[in-house]
């Protein structure tokens, strides 16, 4: 499961075009921002600037940190290198290392190897080798003279390390290159084209058994092309799915996050603002999405640790994300087909008919809904069939059915949903709870609401997810619910299980703790004393049961011994006399 967390602004941008790039720093949760003639180190955790350097000369590529040499490396004027440590104050005093060939950028490696120097002609050398041969003019060229580098990615596995380069020539023809760095791997050059469609974004994704070249086209189709180690087929490769969460009228930025997740940033489909999504390539669904008010073209997206950094029109935005274990229940129903979608719009045929089966202990198979269909309320059958046909999960079904059921006050249908659905969102439980409390009285005419309230109290939930929704529950309704729980505590035969009573009482006390402390209402204080007395009574009962438990265990094991009465024998007596 992938999730985008709340984003924040790291610092304002006067001109986003002056931002050359962002790289990871020597310490975790720190980044190096290269902005025009300035180099700034930021700590993302507290959004504070650690240090900075300025130069008279203009930088031509992002500054990177060399973990092997414990130094920073910068490229000036495309043909000069400068290396310095963190303690250095003035970068202009550092000795320049001049090259005959133009340098495109410096690429740090994370496997303990020295950084790579990539020249504008596509040649790649380790730092030490590039410095030794810097005066040579005839360096082997990978690209043609009319080609420029648009993007690159460094990939490494146990056997080899290689670089992928996306280049574009003067005729607007795009090529995909694979450049070996170490290991036994050959150079690859592919023409990236698709008839009648334009390339909008691309990235490379490293999986367990292969490396794939992902391409996103102007019709929204996302393709995956394996190029290592197995032989590669013809471009564009295998269709993953059609991406509709971002607009294809503008360029799109893609960054690989894991073997199955990719971050996509581009203009919003409504053409108002921008959208950042985490896309699951394995299942072809959008798992998380953020909307931004402004979109800056071309889109700039960087990846640092567990953070995504975006250059918007006026700010550098940091978006933390989390990648957790994938849960199929969270993906079911996440990608529903629309009725207005044309049949030829996707190369994948979608099937919505499935046999839901259950294998019991006797090895027989039967339809899960065969026995329960006759108990489904008639008002829900049509809606449930439509939602099941769309592949909606239980939580999505509840969210879509709940507004209609609350509006029509369909109490019996609400009770049925609570009793038969196992995955009910906590916010939906609070909505039903509020609905029942607003109509709840002690009169016999409101017995359905009493039953609905008890059904909510028995529904499974997560206290961590429920607490934020309970904060929104009005205080007077909270007091009404506490009165109801206290009455169930005192009842001889309670309609609510004791464990549910204890858990709900604890949550309600935690949710409005400050209100209870600051309240001077005598009725509120009396209610709290009443609950305190009930808790003390429960503790006393538990202690009594605790003392009774050993006796019951002995009785069950047949070891219960009955002590015989001891009778006093008065035939003789013994007296002790102290003579001295």
Automatic annotation (TrEMBL):
| Short name of one Pfam family | Nol11_C
**A GO CC term?**
nucleolus
List where the protein spans the membrane. Answer: none
Q: Which GO terms describe its molecular function?
A: RNA binding
Entry's Gene Ontology BP terms: maturation of SSU-rRNA
Output the superkingdom of the source species.
Eukaryota
List residues of the Nucleolar protein 11 C-terminal domain. Answer: 379-580
Q: What is its main location?
A: nucleus
Domain annotation Nucleolar protein 11 N-terminal: ranges: 1-322
Q: Where in the cell is it found?
A: Nucleus, Nucleolus
User: What are the protein's UniProt keywords?
Assistant: Activator, Nucleus, rRNA processing, Transcription, Transcription regulation
What is this protein identified as?
Answer: Nucleolar protein 11
Species whose genome carries this gene: Zootermopsis nevadensis
């Amino acid at each position: 499961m992938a999730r985008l967390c709340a984003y924040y602004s790291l610092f304002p941008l006067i001109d986003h075009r002056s931002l050359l790039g962002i790289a990871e720093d020597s310490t975790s949760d720190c980044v190096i921002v290269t902005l025009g003639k300035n180099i700034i180190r930021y700590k993302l955790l507290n959004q504070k600037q650690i240090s900075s350097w300025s130069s008279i000369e203009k930088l031509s590529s992002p500054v990177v940190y060399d973990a092997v040499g414990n130094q920073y490396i910068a490229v000036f004027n495309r043909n000069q290198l400068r290396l310095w440590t963190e303690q250095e104050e003035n970068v202009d005093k550092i000795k320049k290392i001049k090259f005959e060939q133009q340098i495109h950028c410096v690429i740090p490696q994370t496997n303990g190897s020295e950084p790579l120097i990539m020249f504008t002609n596509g040649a790649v050398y380790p730092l030490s080798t590039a410095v030794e041969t810097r005066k040579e003019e005839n360096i082997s060229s990978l690209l043609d003279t009319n080609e420029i580098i648009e993007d690159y990615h460094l990939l490494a596995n146990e056997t080899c390390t290689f670089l992928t380069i996306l280049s574009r020539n003067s005729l607007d023809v795009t090529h995909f290159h694979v450049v070996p760095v170490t290991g036994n791997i050959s150079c690859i050059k592919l023409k990236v084209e698709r008839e009648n469609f334009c390339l909008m974004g691309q990235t490379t994704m490293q999986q367990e058994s292969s490396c794939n070249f992902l391409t996103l086209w102007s019709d929204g189709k996302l393709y995956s092309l394996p190029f290592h180690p197995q032989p590669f087929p013809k471009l564009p490769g295998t269709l993953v799915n059609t991406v509709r969460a971002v607009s294809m009228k503008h360029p799109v930025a893609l960054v690989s996050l894991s073997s199955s997740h990719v971050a996509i940033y581009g203009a919003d489909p409504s053409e108002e603002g921008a959208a950042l999504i985490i896309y699951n390539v394995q299942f072809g669904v959008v798992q998380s999405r953020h909307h931004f008010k402004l979109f800056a073209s071309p889109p700039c997206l960087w990846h640092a640790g567990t953070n995504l950094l975006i250059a918007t029109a006026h700010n550098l935005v940091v978006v933390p994300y989390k990648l957790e274990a994938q849960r199929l229940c969270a993906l079911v129903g996440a990608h529903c087909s629309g009725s207005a979608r044309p049949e030829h719009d996707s190369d994948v045929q979608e099937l919505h008919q499935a046999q839901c089966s259950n294998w019991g202990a006797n090895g027989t198979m039967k339809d899960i809904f065969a026995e329960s269909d006759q108990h489904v309320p008639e008002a829900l059958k049509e809606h449930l069939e439509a939602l099941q046909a769309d592949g909606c999960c239980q939580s999505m079904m509840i969210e879509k059915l709940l507004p209609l059921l609350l509006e029509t006050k369909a109490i019996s249908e609400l009770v049925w949903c609570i009793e038969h659905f196992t995955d009910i969102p906590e916010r939906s439980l609070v909505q039903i709870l509020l609905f029942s409390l607003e109509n709840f009285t002690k009169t016999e005419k409101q017995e359905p609401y009493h039953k609905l309230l008890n059904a909510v109290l028995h529904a499974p939930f997560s206290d961590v997810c429920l607490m934020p929704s309970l904060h929104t529950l009005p205080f007077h309704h909270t007091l009404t619910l506490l009165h109801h729980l206290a009455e169930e505590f005192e009842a001889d035969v309670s309609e609510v299980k004791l464990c549910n009573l204890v858990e709900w009482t604890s949550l309600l006390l935690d949710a409005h703790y400050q209100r209870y402390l600051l309240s001077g209402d005598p009725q509120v204080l009396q209610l709290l004393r009443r609950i305190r007395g009930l808790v003390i009574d429960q503790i006393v009962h538990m202690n009594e049961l605790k003392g009774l438990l050993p006796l019951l265990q002995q009785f069950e094991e047949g070891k219960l011994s009955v002590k015989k009465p001891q009778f006093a024998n008065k035939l003789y007596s013994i007296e002790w006399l102290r003579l001295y």
